[in-house]
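> example.struct
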């Protein structure tokens, strides 16, 4: 029986060498040589004003909530079809997630519904780039500018994707990226805060350094470092940064490999004549990173039965998010600002299929063959 795990972490070959280099240099705590290399790579690749490694994308989102000054009762517009961290980061500061429906084509925040969700308490919009495909950022930027709002990109899945040629994570005022084991470029756990608006850069460094001006002290800008603001231990250890830098060096190759497998899946679905399922839609002005391949099952089909059958055949296929607006905490802490018709419908029909670098070029066709057998 064919065994295909949903994900398999991919190594580039230099991870352990760089970890050994960090150990040999006596750098185990964060903000060492490899942290600085990662920062430089991210700033150069994204064209960002500043980048700060964090121990998770969740931490980067929490830093964003602090930076934009979320206070109790402030509202943050976001999709319901996202991971809990998108909402938790703001709820922790007393913010109220305001859930808006997603588009049926990309499963991204429906930009047409955002403006009517704005109230006098609205502070920010969070654009979640689902499956590494961009939201309609120009529309969201225009809305944010006209209403005096901040735009934050939850680009957890978006590294190496682009919108009209612009890197995801580098378009909004702030961006958050994930390097979790399930993402394209990985460090086990890890993330980064991307600062695109210069007015947030100085404070971001202080928050990142536990609320101190420690970095300014080491640059010789102050004669001692002090506690000057709130903050936390957001940065990762240097061994994590060393591992990550080996991945970042090969980000283009990793992305190309994933995109080839993604394209093979699309071709296999077409060859199998599976007209009853739909595949991801990538608008022409968006360049995706091959992060995820999913199919949308026909309405009325029992997804649990399909997943059970695929897993019985060795294909570790999975569903995705339970919409936040229908979850107990979502109902407690947030509210909806639109009908959630697309979110409710699509969240019940998504089936994510295995995709990881190193997978055999023939595996997508074999997986789709198993899927076709399941649907007959």
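> example.seq
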């Amino acid at each position: 029986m064919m065994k295909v795990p949903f994900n398999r972490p991919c190594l580039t070959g230099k991870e352990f060498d760089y970890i050994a280099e960090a150990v040999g240099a006596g750098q185990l705590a964060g903000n060492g040589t490899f942290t600085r290399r990662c920062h430089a790579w991210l700033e150069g690749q994204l064209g960002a004003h500043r980048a700060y490694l964090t121990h998770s994308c969740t931490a980067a989102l929490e830093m964003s909530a602090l930076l934009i000054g979320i206070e109790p009762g402030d509202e943050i517009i976001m999709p319901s079809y996202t991971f809990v961290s998108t909402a938790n980061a703001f709820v922790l500061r007393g913010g109220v997630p305001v859930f808006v429906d997603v588009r049926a084509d990309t499963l991204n925040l429906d930009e047409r519904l955002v403006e009517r969700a704005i109230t006098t308490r609205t502070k920010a919009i969070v654009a979640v780039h689902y499956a590494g495909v961009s939201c309609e950022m120009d529309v969201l930027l225009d809305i944010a500018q006209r209403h005096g709002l901040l735009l934050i990109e939850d680009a957890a899945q978006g590294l190496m994707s682009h919108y009209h040629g612009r890197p995801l994570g580098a378009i909004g005022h702030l961006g958050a990226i994930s390097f979790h084991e399930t993402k394209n470029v990985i460090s086990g756990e890890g993330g980064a805060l991307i600062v695109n608006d210069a007015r947030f850069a100085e404070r971001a460094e202080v928050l990142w350094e536990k609320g101190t001006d420690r970095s300014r002290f080491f640059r010789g800008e102050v004669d001692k470092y002090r506690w000057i603001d709130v903050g936390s231990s957001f940065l990762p250890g240097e061994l994590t940064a060393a591992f990550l830098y080996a991945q970042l060096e090969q980000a283009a190759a990793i992305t190309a490999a994933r995109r080839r497998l993604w394209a093979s899946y699309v071709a296999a679905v077409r060859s199998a004549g599976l007209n009853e399922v739909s595949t991801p839609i990538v608008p022409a002005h968006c360049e995706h990173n091959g992060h995820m391949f999913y199919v949308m099952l026909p309405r009325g089909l029992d997804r649990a039965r399909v997943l059970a059958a695929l897993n019985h055949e060795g294909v570790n296929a999975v569903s995705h998010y339970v919409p936040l607006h229908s979850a107990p905490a979502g109902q407690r802490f947030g509210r909806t600002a639109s009908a959630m018709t697309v979110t409710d419908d699509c969240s019940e029909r998504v089936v994510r299929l295995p995709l990881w670098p190193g997978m055999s070029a023939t595996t997508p066709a074999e997986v789709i063959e198993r899927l076709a057998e399941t649907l007959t």
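> remarks
The chain has two domains: 15-249, 251-375.
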